[in-house]
Fold this sequence. Notes:
With about 90 residues, the protein is mainly α. Helices cover about 80% and strands about 0% of the residues. It has one domain (about 1-90).
Amino acid sequence: MADAEKIKDAGGQGSAHRVRAAAIVIYATFALLILTIPQSLPNWLRDMEENPVQQVLLHAASGVQAAAQAVGLDVPYRRVRAAFHAWTGKEDD
């Protein structure tokens, strides 16, 4: 009986570990996207209904965008975007 209880306890810890690992991967992906495509978050926030929380987040996101662009984190994105536009013949709106 004691062995069966240990197996049950270990199974619960394993699933919690998997959920934690998945959450870390998801949030790290969001952070990477925000830093490498910095205009994405402010653009998304501008499309939201205007409210006090949205305004605070927009201000913070604009700061992150300016910092990411200042250190050049968005350079790979801009290069790929320019190559895509050249390849497809499309232009920015």
